[in-house]
């Protein structure tokens, strides 16, 4: 009996349908029903401003919170669905996490579906709330309905933590063995997540995984290949175990290629390209470094490469994976040529992405298949004219990789044309590449000098800091080219001082060889008539030009001073110019001028000897060009001089800081490479190349132990100055080692023994980078025990190129007078993917031949 209070007290109501009618009119209901998701989306889309949208969201969130507090089970599913939409828009929705768990625990499929979706979006393993789901997921994995089981598998495979994976791995393994293909494919993907979280559970899935490849359903086949790939990548034992499946995988791939039209799996005329790509990736892993597996898949790879249609992007995707597989396994040479020809066809495609992919792949393979890539040189060079900057950069890198002694003239012509017209961000890398290629493959010294001068004229302000001293060294060593070079440089800077490196080289050459310029002794081209005053006019205009930097003015003033011994009629004018700059506001220039004035006044009898022509510089046979010493702002290459060490104790070098950085008390400091000495500075750098050389190998305040003989003059510091080679050209019988291999960075040591001192081991390090991005600001540091002495020479670069397209080399000399076993601690610092990386490692596996 139901009563309703009215004006005359309680009245009896005789029928239940009437109460339903009253409820439907809202007389009894406490709050209105929330709006549907579709209406919320429509309302939010009508918002004209961000503020209006936020106001709508906040109002709806308040209503949803109220509904959650009321424990309203009727509309919980609708409210969570709306909350997920707000989460997708970027608004906070964390207050709905527990409501998702309540929906998962519901018996209704619609509630479970929204609950599991909310858990995948709003929860992750960093929040303890997700552990409350474990029991619900376990119950649903054993549910009688396959769709509920599928929801549980998807959620576990998406956000399951390592604890959840351990607890539920058994249920996943059971579902892998079920006959239901819908559940088997979801269980296989869930198993991939379990293996990633808990690798030691891999063996649990081994029996079930073998049977998955016998499945006819393409979905199950696809997920089984993904599972196999994951297991092979994570375990070498699994990789060796699954290599026997290569014939079965080849058979599946062949059936896909040869099968007729199947509307269920056809994509642009190709049967299930997604499964083909996955199988090709798995074959690539299985065939790597294995002759038998590679031999078994050679035929099918050739068949895929020749029969796949290239008119659609789907076919190009399969061909690209085929090429990667061919290049990664031990394939036949003809097959590798076929793969490179496919990439060459990609370069002619109108799609920019395909062209970029082709250039990147060719860059990876150019080291191993150089001749095959050379056939597509003209197409690669044409890509330098592409409007897309990423394609242009890849084409430039690949073009430099293709340069050799046979095509150096043609390639340099194209690259110099590219340097003229390219964007400013390309000029520095292009100029550096041209310098390196010209130094390595120059057909003649005149061609080399002309090429470097062309680069300085075109992009002088973008070249590296060492371009000026390197060119000066090249010119100095080319004695027969002095007259030609100074005439070319003189004409190059007439009226144009914008390219400062070019002006610096020109000023240095005019100072050294100004007499050849005035005498007109050039034989390579028609000599020009220049007077001494005209030469001085040029140098004085450099001094007063607003475009000249302080370093350039230093070059010009020094050149004018040198001309006082080359010219005869303008010495008084030179004295006047030098005296004027004795009061310059530029301290560097003023100091030079004062010192040069003193030469004229007090030491005029020594001036000719001090300013005589620079001798020919001998290249150091170790790593990189001749040592360059920077003095007074002017970079002049000077030959290393042999100087005996002073008898007194040496100042303590800042290199001893390496002890603290690399750890350990038995480590000897590094000996810097520069020959000059100066007092130690508290602010000095770790390996100050211009700092002092501590020839004793230990700080002066801490004498070596009695058991270690005092070495006053390590012979290896002077080896490079003798007439015989520094070390054996061919290191016979000393195997190389891999000192470090981590995060794509690989450091290899090769060994040589000094000819002049058997106690010296020369180690050449080679750093390579297999990742997709360059490693910049690379610094290699090393330390050895105090019974050894170590010297680090300058590295060839500070950038380790990506995709193993190049290496950084650096030479280490180790003096081991007691023939003890080598031990070394290394420190690596570099920037990669925007992050600063640092790592320490110990090297204890030196071959006995390197120290005995």
TrEMBL record:
Lineage start: Eukaryota, Metazoa, Chordata, Craniata, Vertebrata
SUPFAM superfamilies, A to Z: ARM repeat, Clathrin adaptor appendage domain
Pfam families: Adaptin_N (PF01602), Alpha_adaptinC2 (PF02883)
Residues of the GAE domain: 732-847
Function, in words: Subunit of clathrin-associated adaptor protein complex 1 that plays a role in protein sorting in the late-Golgi/trans-Golgi network (TGN) and/or endosomes. The AP complexes mediate both the recruitment of clathrin to membranes and the recognition of sorting signals within the cytosolic tails of transmembrane cargo molecules.
Membrane topology, as annotated: Peripheral membrane protein
Protein name: AP-1 complex subunit gamma
Biological processes annotated in GO: endosome to melanosome transport; Golgi to lysosome transport; intracellular protein transport; positive regulation of natural killer cell degranulation
Stretches with biased composition (Polar residues): 624-635
Keywords: Coated pit, Cytoplasm, Cytoplasmic vesicle, Golgi apparatus, Membrane, Protein transport, Transport
Gene that this sequence comes from: AP1G1
